[in-house]
Amino acid sequence: MDYNKKAEELFETLIKQKRYMNEIPSSLSQGESGVLLYLLEVKDEVTQSELSENLSVTMPRIVAIINTLQRKDLIKKGIDKNDKRKTIISITEQGKKDILKKKKEAIKFIEKIIGKLKPEEIEQYIKISKKIERISNDIEG
After folding, report:
1. CATH number at residue 101
2. Would you say residue 83 lies in a domain?
3. Distance CA 110, CA 104 (A)
4. Side by side, which strands form the sheet with 75-79?
5. pLDDT digits (tens, 9 = 90+) for 78-118
6. For the chain, how big is the Rg over CA atoms in Å?
7. Cα separations (Å) of 39 from 33, 35, 77, 91?
């Protein structure tokens, strides 16, 4: 099997899927959504450097996203009690409301897609996707 050719084919499919996901109506960019989802589902309060590291986004990009989210009143910034040099980021109630709305719309969109598949195809896709996620998280660099 030509793994490079198959990787290119999969890459093209993922890019096209991402394009459809971006068409879900929202006032949030992909990066903003990622930060809000992280704050909602993973950790309530986080430093900018933790966000950068855990979301694999550069510090300058994280700072830009945080500034935009703060202007939209979706996050708030504070000072770390233990280290005054660190800025702590947390999600606001409006931020929770907005990201939950986008998540709900995305799930409805995905539901329409998987509704065209057989139940066994859905289960197989989920199983393979989870396996790929585990493998990709184990690969360094």
Report:
1. 1.10.10.10
2. yes
3. 10
4. 45-47, 87-91, 75-79
5. 988 888 888 899 999 999 999 999 888 888 888 888 899 99
6. 18
7. 10, 6, 13, 6
